[in-house]
Design goal:
four-stranded antiparallel β-sheet; 12% strand; 63% helix; 182 residues; alpha+beta; single chain
């Protein structure tokens, strides 16, 4: 079992997840080909339920009562937080890591690719914050559809923050500098 605060998801190398261990300051690889959480069924179920709820509640798209809006907002936030904790706990409980050994050339290529991925991820996180802001505006403009946008976007944002993916760029730069010094 690994603590999510001590390892950072780093990317994939030949379809194997790679993690950075903060305690040891080194990369570790998991032997599993996928992240050990069966979330596809949950996503499909949630989408089907949300679509049917949207269709049934279309005449009720305007929420006039501010107490109802605030209660739904707090409940949606709690649902997203609990879902992220559950996903992370399950992911790191079944994680088995071993040291990451590859040649220096492949290592440099891997790190350069992760540097590009970290830059793309930064822009993705900015986009997620913008969509989250828009969904909150929709909620407070009395639109029920804002809640259906708010929960998955908040889930994605919390998952990214909890995985500390924005910290990856600093780690990649440090590892590249260590590689140059060798």
């Amino acid at each position: 079992m690994y603590d999510y605060k001590k390892i950072i998801p780093f990317g994939y190398y030949k379809k194997n997840p790679v993690y950075y261990d903060l305690n040891e300051g080194s990369l570790k690889v998991s032997q599993s080909k996928v992240i050990p959480y069966k979330i596809n069924g949950w996503i499909l179920s949630a989408v089907l339920v949300a679509l049917s709820m949207i269709r049934k509640s279309y005449p009720l798209t305007i929420l006039e009562n501010s107490y109802v809006k605030m209660t739904l907002f707090v409940l949606a936030t709690i649902v997203a937080v609990v879902a992220v904790k559950s996903v992370n706990r399950h992911q790191y409980n079944q994680l088995s890591l071993s040291p990451f050994y590859i040649s220096n050339g492949e290592y440099r290529e891997f790190l350069n690719q992760q540097l590009k991925n970290a830059s793309l991820l930064f822009y993705f996180v900015i986009g997620v914050y913008i969509v989250l802001f828009i969904s909150v505006l929709c909620i407070f403009q009395s639109s029920l559809l804002g809640f259906f946008l708010y929960v998955p976007v908040l889930f994605i944002l919390l998952l990214l923050r909890r995985s500390r993916v924005l910290y990856r760029k600093r780690i990649v730069l440090k590892l590249l500098e260590n590689l140059k010094n060798e």
